[in-house]
Amino acid sequence: MASGVATVWLPVKDMKRALGFYGETLGLEVKRETDDWSELDANGLMVGLNARESSGADGGGGALLTFRPDGGLEDEVSRLKGEGVSFVGDISDHPWGRIASFKDSEGNDLQLYEPPSD
To answer: What angle do CA 64, 19, 47 make, to 5 degrees?
Structure first.
């Protein structure tokens, strides 16, 4: 039985660059930092950054994380664009909410999510 998410981890090619993105650009608290594994606190959810193996296939897969911005979706998209983040398309509207898709410094897929207004 799964009662919640304990850890989400992402493969990264460059740990320092990834820590800069998640720690500085997104503002998550770095809890542990090594060359092979680092941990960040995302409001009680531990996000692990795992260094990719230097040999073997370099597939394009990986986890997808969705973040809920503290303020409005447009404001956070604007802030992140100001930090050099590139978004994939425009904000999309759905019956279940709005999303804005972007990539992190390592090419992993991320999204910002805003629930529908009542």
So the answer is: 40
Q: Distance between the two ends of the chain, CA-based, in angstroms? A: 32
List of domains in the chain: 7-52+62-114 (3.10.180.10)
- Ramachandran region, residue 95 (left: φ > 0; alpha: ψ -120 to 50; beta: rest): alpha
Say how far apart CA 20 and CA 26 lie, in whole Å.
9
The two beta strands, 45-51 and 7-12, are: parallel
Q: Please check whether residue 89 is in contact with residue 4, taking contact to mean a CB–CB distance below 8 angstroms.
A: no
User: How do 37-42 and 29-33 pair as beta strands?
Assistant: antiparallel
The distance from CA 12 to its chain's CA centroid, rounded to whole angstroms, is 12
pLDDT in tens, the chain (118 residues): 444 566 788 889 899 999 999 999 999 999 999 998 899 999 999 898 988 755 444 455 567 778 888 888 999 999 999 999 999 889 999 888 898 989 889 888 888 888 888 7
